[in-house]
Design goal:
It is found in: Cell membrane. The protein is of the alpha+beta class. Helix content is 49%, strand content 16%. The structure holds adenosine-5'-triphosphate.
Length: 883
């Protein structure tokens, strides 16, 4: 069904879609239409078939090397080797495949958490619905920052502009209107329509849904939107490159050794080839990539469970390196539970009683309730703030809540506390609130007179009311404002202006002069207790918190002090930032923690200054204008509740609860994940190192191979799927949030890590090699590979307990905190017993059943590794500390 909706008038559309522009649809019609039109969503994009996803995991240099090895063993007639090598390749692909499925599921879940919502009018009432539930005929309200949820024909448009680049390629915003258009009008010029998937950059509007799902313009070109980005993280990229490097080195080394063996040792070429294959599979950390992505995926999941939704995987790593968090004040650091406590008019100050949004309380003068009729200025002030208002307070489940903006909600409650009912006049035209100009105005008709009511930030309104700086009147109002802001209250002013009868619409020029100030309202918004704690945690973790708020500077500083965010008295205002050079801004962000009366542009300036200074910053935001700053910040943080869709799309992280503490928790989780990624690498590589060392030593010294290729593969796989996984569940190490953030330039394999990997490789490989002659003597050559295999596995088992703690002695009070470590250890031991004693497994791996005494060496080597590495940690940290 595709009609030329833009060329029809609203009456016709109402008739055709059986709706009403004011009241919307009734429930019965909604149900009928949903049955007929289906859900408002685009068909899922064709998914890659499962088998193909599985096959893709064989596309890897490391696996190619394995498959070549399989072919060689097949030609040489070592069929068991062939089967095992292929099995390893398959298991490896299977793990990768299952892992990918899990990560996909986690990300899908996150996508669902970010589902698009829409404000709909049905049966005359506003509802917040999932965009999926919209049907043609629904009446939808949109405002700046919204993503358009379906194709809409506009009924009302106030300063409405839309960004339609995703559909038309046009990069500038299109001004929207409501007039009927010619039926030849092309898509880009249909200014009375809003299209699904585009976004509102300014103003407010009301429209009737005319097309949903596949019938929308975007549906016709079938482009899916709202993708959660998925790219490789810097760390995964580093390991990928590292893997490739290893492969090349290995192949070269193996070839050289093969030639060396043939020339100097006169080995049988077939045997030699098998050994060289052994070397190749030994040195390749097959399981590493899969484990690293498991750790990341689990991290993303934990963060989501803790109310921080990551939209990109790399940000999980960046989070751990954050040095500065720039936070909004209202709702993030404070509770966003606003209550008006005082109203000030030209000659009186009224106290307001009652808490929360419940419209129960009194307006009092000198402790006595006043009759608002006796105070015309007060009466008009209340009319103004109730009229120029898009929010409401309602009772739901015995609780009074705001529908809309808390700042506006508390003004509605205030008006409803008056002794006489205050009328909400109908708005004939309006200038919606925007944090860049900080006021809202509406044209109304009151007792036959057209007038503009306005409410906004007092300092703006004082100028618009022509109060000269230094005049007695201005001084009075400034003094009144200061009293409120100094205690951390936010202040709203209201003003009025009569206009001529012919006025139909209003614009910024209409309110720039000639207003009469009616009064001020002082509003409290208490700090969040948990945010105070979180700020303290940041200080300990070497993270600076900066407040960037649209509020008055005294309010901002008072709250910052109450929350111990700063101990300095410095506040810089947005317009001061505007006047500074880039260099000056770089200096200012180092000295100042509180920025007030900022505009979204200031946020961008601050992010840029911080980046020039080399800081890694997280920046919060909610409005459509915040998008550039959110995009630019290392971690853009959008508010899940009050944030606009556009802000969410521009950011790396979305806070489900808009709470500052959630950011700090996510940073903590980011540090944990990064540490565990590093620990995993530190853990896995020595296995490969030790094996490669043994194979090379045997080749060079002309010894019998200690392990076959199959046995080596087995060791790599079994440690990767058991003990290595334990590190993914390792809780955050003590003291991690007490040290400064890591440097963003820090290399994955620091010199110390390189040293550790080589040290542990030599420790494990060397002790086996040293004991080898004794094993031959004591237990006979045929048992040596079995003992060697167990020695390697036990060494890694114990080594895992070393790696769990990077800085601390491992036998500390957190030793039992990671249950996974013990479960996988037990599992590993059971598997080891099975392969040693179950006949068919023995045969497959070429092992011998061991007597009890023969277990002595493997266990002792494991224990030895543990003790030596603990001593090494202690010594190294002493040395580092001294340095
Ligand atoms: P923060 O940046 O800390 O989250 P904020 O986003 O609430 O604060 P703005 O929304 O930019 O800050 O508000 C700045 C000022 O504009 C407020 O101090 C208040 O005086 C005024 N103001 C806020 N909301 C409205 C509104 N709905 N109508 C009119 N004026 C408003």
């Amino acid at each position: 069904m595709s009609r030329q909706w833009f060329s029809l008038d609203i009456d016709t559309i109402e008739k055709q879609l059986e709706t009403n522009r004011d009241e919307g649809l009734v429930q019965r019609e909604v149900t009928e239409k949903r049955d007929y039109y289906g859900k408002n969503k685009l068909p899922e994009q064709e998914k890659t078939p499962e088998w193909l996803k599985f096959i893709k995991h064989f596309h890897d240099v490391l696996i190619y090397i394995l498959l070549v090895a399989a072919v060689v063993t097949l030609i040489l007639g070592h069929y068991i080797d062939t089967v095992v090598i292929i099995l390893v390749a398959v298991i490896n692909a299977l793990i990768g495949y299952i892992q990918e499925g899990k990560a996909e599921k986690a990300l899908d879940g996150i996508k669902n958490m970010l589902s698009l919502h829409a404000t709909v009018v049905r049966e005359g009432k506003r509802h917040d619905l999932e965009a999926e539930d919209l049907v043609p005929g629904d009446v939808v309200l949109v405002k700046a920052g919204d993503k358009v949820p379906a194709d809409l024909r506009l009924v009302e448009a106030d300063h409405l502009k839309a960004e339609e680049a995703s559909l038309t390629g046009e990069s500038t915003s299109v001004t929207k209107e409501t007039m009927v258009l010619d039926d030849e009008t092309v898509l880009g010029d249909r200014v009375n329509m809003l299209f699904s998937g585009t976004s509102i950059s300014q103003g407010t509007g009301r429209g009737i849904v005319v097309a949903t799902g596949e019938d929308t313009e975007i549906g016709k070109i079938n482009q899916s939107m709202q993708d959660v980005e998925e790219i490789k993280t810097p760390l995964l990229k580093q390991t990928d490159d590292f893997g490739k490097l290893i492969s090349i080195v290995i192949v070269v080394l193996a070839t050289l050794l093969f030639i060396f063996g043939l020339t100097f040792h006169q080995y049988d070429w077939q045997e030699l080839l098998l050994s060289v294959i052994g070397l190749m599979v030994a040195a390749i950390p097959e399981g590493l990539p899969a484990i690293l992505s498991i750790i990341l995926a689990l991290g993303v999941q934990t963060m989501a469970d803790n109310k921080a939704i990551m939209r990109t995987l790399p940000s999980v790593e960046t989070l751990g390196a954050v040095t500065i968090i720039c936070s909004d004040k209202t709702g993030t650091l404070t509770k966003n539970e606003m209550t008006v406590t005082t109203v000030v008019t030209a000659n009186q100050t009224f106290d307001v009683t009652g808490t929360g949004y419940e419209p129960v309380g009194e307006l009092r003068l000198n402790d006595k309730e006043v009759n608002v009729i006796d105070y015309p200025r007060l009466f008009q002030f209340l009319t103004a703030v109730k009229t120029v208002n898009e929010s409401d307070v309602i009772e739901k489940d015995n609780q009074w809540i705001v529908q809309g903006e808390p700042t506006e909600g508390c003004l509605v409650s205030l008006a409803d506390k008056a002794s006489q009912p205050i009328k909400k006049l109908s708005m004939q035209s309006k200038i919606p609130f925007d944090s860049s100009y900080k006021y809202m105005a509406a044209l109304v008709e009151e007792d036959g007179q057209k007038r503009i009511y306005l409410k906004g930030a007092p300092d703006r309104v004082f100028d618009m009311a022509g109060l000269e700086v230094g005049s007695e009147e201005r001084n009075y109002w400034e003094e009144q404002m200061k009293r409120r802001t100094e205690t951390g209250e936010r202040v709203i002013a209201a003003a009025v202006k009569d206009v001529s009868e012919t006025t139909e619409t209003i614009d910024h020029e209409d309110v720039s002069t000639g207003l009469t100030l009616l009064g001020l309202a002082g509003i409290i918004d208490p700090p969040r207790e948990e945010a105070i704690e979180a700020i303290k945690a940041c200080k300990q973790a070497g993270i600076t918190v900066k407040m960037i708020t649209g509020d008055h500077k005294d309010t901002a500083l008072a709250i910052a002090k109450q929350m111990q965010l700063t101990d300095r008295d410095a506040v810089v205002e947005g317009r001061e930032l505007d006047d500074m050079s880039d260099d000056e801004r770089c200096e200012v962000v180092k000295r100042v923690d509180v920025f007030a009366r900022t505009s979204p542009k200031n946020k961008l300036q601050l992010v840029e200054a911080l980046q020039t200074n080399g800081d890694i910053s997280a920046m919060t935001g909610d409005g459509v204008n915040d998008a550039p700053a959110l995009k630019r910040a290392d971690i853009g943080v959008a508010m899940g509740i009050k944030g606009t869709e556009v802000a969410k799309e521009a950011s790396e992280m979305v806070l489900v609860d808009d709470n500052f503490r959630t950011i700090v928790n996510a940073v903590k989780e980011g540090r944990r994940v990064y540490d565990n990624l590093k620990k995993t690498i530190l853990f896995i590589l020595p296995t490969n190192g030790a094996e490669a060392f043994l194979v090379m030593a045997a080749l060079l010294l002309g010894l019998t191979m200690l392990l076959s290729a199959v046995q080596i593969l087995y060791v790599n796989m079994v440690t990767a799927v058991t003990v290595a996984l334990a590190l993914a569940f390792e809780p955050i190490e003590r003291g991690t949030m007490e040290k400064p953030p890591r440097k963003s330039t820090e290399r994955l394999l620091s010199p110390y890590y390189m040293f550790r990997i080589v040290f542990v490789s030599l420790l494990i490989g060397g002790s086996i090699l040293l004991l080898y002659p004794r094993w031959v003597e004591q237990y006979g050559q045929e048992n040596v590979s079995t003992i060697t295999l167990h020695a390697l596995v036990f060494a890694q088992l114990f080594h895992m307990f070393n790696v769990r703690n990077e800085r601390h002695f491992s036998l500390n009070k957190d030793f039992f905190k990671n249950k996974a470590a013990f479960i996988v250890s037990a599992l590993l031991i059971i598997i080891q017993l099975l392969v040693t004693y179950v006949p068919f497994m023995q045969v497959a791996l070429g092992l011998q059943p061991l007597s009890l005494g023969e277990w002595f060496y493997p266990v002792m080597i494991g224990l030895g590794v543990f003790i030596v590495v603990e001593i090494e940690k202690l010594v190294t940290h002493r040395v580092f500390k001294r340095k």
